[in-house]
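User: quick one
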Amino acid sequence: MSEIFNSDFYSKLNMLRFPLRISNATGLSGSRKSNAKGNSVEFSDFREYRLGDDIRRIDWNAYGRFDKLYVKLFMEEKEGLFNIFVDNSASMNYGENSKGVCALRIAGILSYLVLSAGDRLSVNLMRDGSLTCHNNLSQMQAFPKCLQYLEESVFTGNGQILESIKSKEFRGSGLSFVITDCFTDDMEDICKYLRFKNQDIVIIHVLAEEEINPVLDGTLNLVDMEDGSALKATMSQSLIRTYKKNLKKFYEDMESLCRRNKATYIKVNSSDSLDAIVFGAMAVLK
Amino acid sequence: MKFLYLWPLVFILLVPVIIIVYLLKQKAQDKKVSSLYLWNEIYHNIEANTPWEKFKKNLLMFVQILTMLVLIVALMAPYIPNMVQNAQNIVVVIDNSASMNTIYDGEKTRFDVAVEQAVDYIKDLPDSGVVTVITSNDNAAILAGSTDKDMALNKLKHTECTNHGGSAEKGLEMARSLQIDDDSLYVICFTDTAVSMEGLKGYTVDMYNEAGNVSVDYLSHGYSSGSLMALCKISNYSENTMTEDVSLYGGDELLMVETVEIEAGKSEIVYFENIDYDGTYLKAELNQKDALPADNVAYDVLSSGSDKKVLLVTDSNVYLEKALEMVDNITVTKATDVYGIEDFYGEKFDLYIFDSMFPTTYPEDGDIMIFGANSAATYSNLDYLGSVLVSLEEASATRYLDKMDFGAADVYGLNKPDWGETFLSVGDECVGFTGNDGTRNYAVWGFNIHNSVLPLKLEFPMMIYNIVTDFVASGILAENSIEVGDSLAINGYSDGENPTVLRPDGETSPLSDVKMKYTSTDNIGVYTVSQNTKEGLVEECFAVNFPTSESRIINAPSVSDQGDLVQSRVRGNLDLRNIIIAICLLLLGVEWIIYLKK
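Assistant: Done. Structure below.
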């Protein structure tokens, strides 16, 4: 696991300096604009004075012109709340360039972007319908702790990520990244649930090269890594063609599902370089 | 459809073996995948496939089983029987006369092709029933006649065509006699000349083909002023005018070559004069090969035995004298007046020729030839015919000659005796005959040849030659020239040992008696008969030539004129094996494509 976040990874991080877009920051005081009015220096609006208003905020110049009491309203700046959900099931531990490693690296990059922007982060590992999370990570000081947490994760057990996400306690609206191979029929429900929890959604769909372009021959007993179920099939060119056709449809279905649920959909091949992932696939997050 | 063999059905046991092999082949290796999520979807799709698509999954196995079944069927030798199968016993008659030696297809002769077709036909026959194979030329012979097909095939394959005359008629006669005992007999006759299938069930296979042939019909020799001369008749049986080089050999030595141009369907006489040769025999040969090579050569034996004496009583007859010059071994004495001719009778001439001059008494021995017989002559009558057209009849005197007519004046009909053979006729009237009354030979002509155009005809010297050689034959051989298949009387000296015959192929065969008919004349060439007598070794030769009737290989009475009874080739069973093997190959191709697609 020490290879997950290596020197190459860190050198790439230094090049990353872009804020992640978030529609609504609802956390504690922070550096992001929020819909709430507060005490920042940035002017927002005027309104007539009402009883109880701080008289220090009365705009005396306006009173001189209009003979009415107006108070100045200022923007409230809050921190964004980010959740990273990483599918920690056994199926993610597949491929020469493991999907799991790729997912953890993406999670690391996202953590860096979140923490470096002064936002609050929660890292969640999903497995067997449960969730292990590391909440309230903020400031860059928490970044090493975050990486360590990710590094120590083990890919095993079943997915059941809907159940896992449902067990999450959301503290206000925010942005949720779901990094998974999407081998579940619950993706629609997951999106709906997250929307219900006022989350902006980014689905990062990670597949291995062996899944995108399988090279299989002869009659094989295909064994599922999660539940051990098997399927006998005689590989042929036509079968592989059918598989690829099916995969394409799978991608299209996921894309359409995300569009329906106003989620951002990112396709990642675990064999792609980190550069290609960050500046290619994840560029939509800027 | 029927099957020749049933034993290949045993191989059906292999079909379950193929299925078992396929079942065993299904053993699969474990392969871990992240999830069966996508694979299951494919599986569901496969499940949802049509029955045809389900079938396609195991198509390779089905194709292999089908290929196996088709192979088994091929091994069973399937065929569609024809009507012949209803007949239990089959007779195959093959014409092996000389004309069947004609080239039919490239190197193969009509006979070779006939044998091939007959072999194929017999192979296809069921094992039950008797197969009789008959060869036919001027004689018929049963080669095989049993239920043993292999023996019949073996005999047939080793049969050779002969140079004999004749046709398939003799064979069919034999088949008719076989049919008396078995009325279900079915006859297939392979021949190139028209034959009658009357009274027989079956059909003729026409082996006739268009082919050109030029033949040497005849070779003869004579002496003119002491020097040897020869003539040979060349006939063109092709449809084009042919130019031929005719080589004359003395033994094996090439003596002369003459070129002759012959119109289609015509004959030409080629003369060779002043021949410097004193050997045993002459040979004329055409240099150009044609469809029937065997008749491109003819042999003629020179002197044999002592000279015979001929008395020619004539006023003046140059044509007759010239014709007599052609005859070998005779010494001609000429008398110009019949008065006092009786004085010559004491000379014991072998042949007396009276050319329109008749003595008051005839000699008591010696053969007699009379020209211009009238009331004064022997065997004449008073039936005066006047100026008429005289026709040549088929007889020994006109052998080798085509039918012809010629004009003659003052012709008398003859009172032909029972032993006489007409060779000249006017309608039903005999105007010329030859024959032997038991004591001597006679040749009588009912007109003066001076009053006819006959001496101007090509046929005249040949006719004279034929008659005189027949009359004055001597020594131990009755003739010096016969055709293949003819028999020859060998009259050896009674006081000598049994003669031996040296054949052209080098074989020597001793005869079983001093006098007997020699019949083993199958080879074309010169035969030497030798006999040890008290006076020492006597040797005489005779030539055996190709039968001229067989040279006419085109425009012969066509076999195919007989309608439905004639087929262009034999109708055997329809052998389906090749078709089924072709289907099998096709299936293998399909299997290969399916394999590649998988």
